[in-house]
């Protein structure tokens, strides 16, 4: 449920916060006071469209935030903070629990939390694509188990179909592909690449290109070490050895100098070996350069480095094998597809049987609700058609249809012309499906248009019954609906410093009676107050 709603700079709303409650929340007030702006703000928060004209005059941005409590997958209540800020340039800043999200991500998230219904809204219940989900939710666990197995098989079916489509055309195209892959495979194999070869080739080439410089410096270092440093260090060692028996510190010093001498002798031998190894070889240089050019050429064709080239080789080797054995592989896929289709047909048939059986019960229950709301000639139908191709829900297409007058034909819900009829049809469906409808917050914006009398009274009862399973927020002008609320909020506007602003107040019981009286007759009189009290007593059917 929405616990707290904060709206800033939306139309004539300056800065307003309201605490809402579980159950049936009703918003009333004079025309133009800002009731619809509150619903508009909720639509904005649900990822709806926003017009820059909605930003309060003189301000640079608008802001809507809600603290919402929902149940997580473990059934535990979880608090979520959702916000959306829009500036005068049209830029959005959307957040869910402080995490930045896109408008589409916000919309996807909120569509499972808030369902807003107004006279011209296309609700999920008006969308034929959602009707099969409503029916299946109503059926319950029996079809859920079948659908889970069906989805598993359906995913495999799509995968097999996709693989079957990945062919190589006619025999000529197939041979062309085989020739190309064989050429690439041979080119890589003939190169005989090794994983770290490029670094080794570059290192050898670097030595050959710098051979003269390397040789000169190695020779200079060798003779300097051999003729000067080792001879001098030998004399130093002899001098220290002569006094090493006098004190331990001289003995330790002699030991350290001797170690250095031996290490330098080893370095002398290395230098002697290195300088003899250095030789400029033009033929080897050309071979290394050709090898490096070959590696670079293969990198341009098959990968950024030798490792990628070798992985590409593995890939095309497998692809070549698959193509050369394509007929056998396709036959296997076709057999797999045939087996999966058989399973899908069986599962679809089970779902179809369940849907056709339970759809009659659902239609009857909704028709009782419509009859109870003074639509005595209406007839609700669940249309189930067979599809030729498998879809995510089997081989059925489900659509809710309605006949509103005797002699008419059944029409899709979305084509119903009368706003009053549409409101009652929607409420009848919502009432029956309220136990399985997973959207926790339902918002009704003046859905009472076009109804009055007994029908309005029954609509009030239906909304109240729905509010036992969902949080309901309703904007209405009908006293019979206002009287059914658990919590009544009065929306008013005032002028402050030449600016109009909206305020909201939770009414106490006396104030509720006065508001019902005002809505009933347009003024609060002794007679209207008496009538209001009677309506208030009649909250429960």
Structure report:
By secondary structure, the protein is α/β, with parallel strands linked by helices. Among the domains are: 1-113 and 439-541, Rossmann fold (3-Layer(aba) Sandwich); 171-324, no CATH class. 55% of the residues lie in helices and 20% in strands. The protein has helices at residues 35-45, 103-110, 128-139, 141-165, 171-191, 197-209, 211-241, 248-277, 282-302, 306-324, 326-372, 419-433, 453-466, 479-482, 509-521, 526-537, and strands at residues 2-10, 13-19, 24-29, 61-71, 77-87, 92-96, 99-101, 114-118, 379-391, 394-403, 411-412, 441-445, 471-475, 487-496, 499-506. The strands form three sheets. It has a six-stranded antiparallel β-sheet with strand order 2-1-4-5-6-7. Strand 14 (487-496) and strand 15 form a beta hairpin. The longest helix has 47 residues, at 326-372. It is elongated, with a radius of gyration of 41 Å.
List keywords for this structure.
alpha/beta, six-stranded antiparallel sheet, Rossmann fold, 16 helices, single chain, 15 strands, six-stranded mixed sheet, elongated, 55% helix, 541 residues
- Compute the number of strand runs: 15
The spatial strand order of the largest sheet comes to 2-1-4-5-6-7
| Rough outline | elongated
- Fourth CATH level, the homologous superfamily of the domain at 1-113 and 439-541: P-loop containing nucleotide triphosphate hydrolases
| Class per helix and strand makeup | alpha/beta
The CATH architecture of the domain at 1-113 and 439-541 can be given as: 3-Layer(aba) Sandwich
Residue share in helix:
40-55%
What is the third-level CATH name, the topology of the domain at 1-113 and 439-541?
A: Rossmann fold
CATH class of the domain at 1-113 and 439-541: Alpha Beta
How much β-strand is present in the residues? 15-25%
Q: Radius of gyration from the CA trace?
A: 41 Å
Distance between the termini: 25 Å
Average pLDDT taken over every residue: 87
- Unreliable stretches (pLDDT < 50, length at least 5) are none
Number of helices: 16
For the biggest sheet, the summary is: 6 strands, antiparallel
């Amino acid at each position: 449920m929405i616990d707290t709603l904060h709206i800033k700079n939306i139309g004539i709303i300056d800065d307003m916060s309201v605490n809402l409650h579980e159950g049936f929340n009703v918003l009333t007030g004079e025309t133009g006071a800002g009731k619809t702006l509150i619903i508009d703000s909720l639509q904005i928060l649900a990822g709806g469209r926003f017009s820059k004209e909605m930003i309060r005059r003189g301000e640079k941005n608008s802001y809507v935030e809600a603290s919402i409590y929902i149940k997580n997958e473990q059934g535990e209540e979880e608090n979520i903070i959702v916000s959306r800020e829009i500036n005068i340039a049209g830029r959005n800043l959307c957040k869910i629990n402080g995490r930045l999200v896109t408008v589409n991500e916000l919309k996807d998230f909120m569509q499972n939390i808030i369902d807003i219904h107004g006279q011209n809204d296309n609700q999920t219940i008006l969308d034929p694509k959602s009707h099969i989900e409503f029916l299946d939710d109503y059926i319950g666990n029996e079809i859920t188990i079948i659908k889970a197995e069906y989805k598993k098989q359906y995913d495999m079916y799509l995968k097999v179909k996709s693989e079957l489509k990945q062919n190589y055309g006619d025999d000529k195209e197939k041979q062309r592909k085989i020739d190309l892959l064989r050429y690439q495979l041979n080119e890589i194999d003939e190169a005989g690449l090794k994983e770290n070869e490029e670094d080794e080739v570059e290192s050898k080439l670097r030595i050959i290109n710098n051979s003269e410089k390397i040789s000169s410096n190695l020779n200079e270092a060798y003779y300097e070490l051999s003729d000067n440093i080792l001879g001098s260090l030998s004399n130093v060692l002899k001098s220290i050895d002569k006094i090493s028996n006098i004190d331990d510190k001289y003995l330790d010093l002699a030991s350290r100098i001797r170690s250095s001498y031996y290490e330098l002798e080893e370095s002398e031998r290395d230098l002697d070996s290195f300088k003899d190894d250095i030789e400029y070889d033009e033929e080897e240089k050309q071979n290394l350069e050709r090898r490096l050019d070959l590696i670079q050429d293969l990198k341009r064709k098959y990968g950024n480095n030798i490792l990628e080239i070798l992985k590409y080789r593995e890939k095309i080797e497998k692809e070549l094998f698959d193509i050369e054995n394509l007929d056998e592989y396709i036959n296997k896929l076709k057999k797999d597809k045939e087996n999966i289709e058989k399973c899908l047909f069986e599962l679809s048939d089970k779902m179809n049987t369940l849907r056709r059986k339970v759809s009659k019960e659902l239609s009857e229950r909704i028709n009782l609700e419509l009859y109870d709301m003074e639509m005595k000639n209406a007839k609700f139908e669940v249309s189930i058609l067979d599809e030729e191709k498998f879809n995510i829900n089997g081989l059925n297409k489900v659509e809710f249809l309605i006949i509103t007058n005797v002699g008419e034909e059944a029409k899709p819900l979305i084509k119903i012309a009368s706003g009053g009829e549409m409101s009652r049809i929607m409420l009848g469906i919502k009432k029956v499906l309220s136990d399985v409808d997973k959207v926790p917050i339902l918002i009704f914006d003046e859905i009472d248009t076009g109804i009055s009398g007994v029908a309005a009274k029954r609509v009030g009862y239906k909304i109240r019954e729905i509010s036992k399973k969902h949080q309901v927020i309703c904007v209405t002008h009908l006293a019979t609906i206002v009287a059914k609320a658990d919590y009544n909020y009065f929306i008013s506007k005032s002028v402050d410093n030449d600016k109009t602003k909206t305020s909201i107040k939770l009414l106490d019981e006396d104030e509720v009676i006065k508001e019902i009286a005002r809505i009933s007759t347009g003024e609060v009189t002794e007679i209207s107050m008496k009538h209001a009290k009677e309506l208030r007593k009649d909250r429960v059917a």
